[in-house]
Amino acid sequence: MIHNLAAKRELEMIVPYLSEEDLLIIISLSGDISDIIEIVRFLSLKRVPILSITNTRFDRNELANLVPYNLYFLAAEYPIHKTMHVSEDPTSLAALSVLCEAFFFDYVKQISTKDGDMK
């Protein structure tokens, strides 16, 4: 079963129910998790497996340093703010989408193979 948690409060609500049988996947562009660092440390003490998926462009990636499993993607930045008069350059997360989709389909394949559905 997959649950998408979009807010810190949602994560706080499920912490008591997470165990070694679960896998928590945290996706972060920067890896800066100052708002949930205590939760991540607590879950590590509970031996809840945690996978980080973060951008490779950040030097200080606190999340990737704290958890045992890491995947990386390269977010492509499009420098147009000087020519288009926007305040921030847009960032493409297409590589993140491909990585998540590949991870999901491989997981489904692994589960199906264990159940004998696919060979």
TrEMBL record:
Pfam families: SIS (PF01380). GO terms for molecular function: isomerase activity. Signal peptide: none annotated. InterPro entries: SIS_dom, SIS_dom_sf. Keywords: Isomerase. This is Arabinose-5-phosphate isomerase KdsD. The keyword Chloroplast does not apply. Residues 10-96 form the SIS domain. It comes from Sporolactobacillus terrae.
